[in-house]
Amino acid sequence: MMRFRRITQVAGAILCNGYFSALTLGHAYKGPLKGICLPVINCYACPMAIFSCPIGSMQHFMAIHTFPFLLVGLIGLFGLTLGRLTCGWICPFGLLQDLLYKIPVQKIHIPGIFAHFKYATLVLLVIIIPYLTGDPWFSKLCPAGTLTAGIPWVLMNPQNSQTGQAVIAPGAIGPFFLLKLAILGGFLALFAMAKRPFCRTTCPLGAIFSLFNRFSVVQLKVDRGCRGCGSCQERCPVGLTANEGAGSGECIRCLSCTSCSHVSVGVGALGYCREPDSPGTKDQ
Fold first, then answer.
1. Mean pLDDT of 116-132
2. What's the pLDDT band for 161 if we cut at 50, 70, 90?
3. Could you tell me which residues are beta bridge partners of residue 222?
4. 204/269 Cα distance (integer angstroms)
5. What global pTM score does this model have?
6. I want to staple 207 with a disulfide (CB 3.0 to 4.6 A). Which of 122, 143, 146, 275 is the partner?
7. Based on the structure, what is the number of domains in the chain?
8. In the listed set 162, 186, 210, which residue is the last one of a domain according to the structure?
């Protein structure tokens, strides 16, 4: 399961950022696919991005005071069908967090109360502040955007095809860009020390999808034979046990816990199910 999930994560990263011609041409992809949002955090401004970021698009509509009916419908469709499964299986920024956590450094525990912060990020930085200011403030500060768009554009700094001058003028990089780098650096350090800190505390798309977890078609099922051995918590990328995570908005539906005989993935029922013990099931 883990190996297959890693393959889909890498494939998702390539799917989102597959315009490799940007490295030689010096300009971003501007084709028709850029009008389509994938259900993951991936910066629209990244030179190799092929699709749009749903959070970036949402901020755009808030800034122009227009309700994004199609976007909300698309997010709702993914949410009701998969819950947060795309967070666990496709999101490129989730893959980065999973890989950096493997670095052998001192690990820390993130208190559960910080999980509520991502809802504040969604309401304030994605909806209210862009609506009031006309600027996409989450995108301006987003560490994923700094990593995949801000830094690459600064390093590439291509020439403007019309003026022949560099896109980023000498001295144009100021304190705000340094702030963005500091935010990115802080998160990268956290990625090595804690399980998926961005997903758990900050990601506004994760906040939206978490609202659907209990009602999505894809559900986790925990049988009554579970005695809380903790093996699922050790495997879980966000540190949940199957008992608490099966119906939780924090579960990213990576399905790592299904390696335990007491946990399975099911379809349909509202909320998570505690199934009766199956014949021959043994406690782990």
1. 98
2. low
3. 263, 274
4. 26
5. 0.89
6. 122
7. 2
8. 210
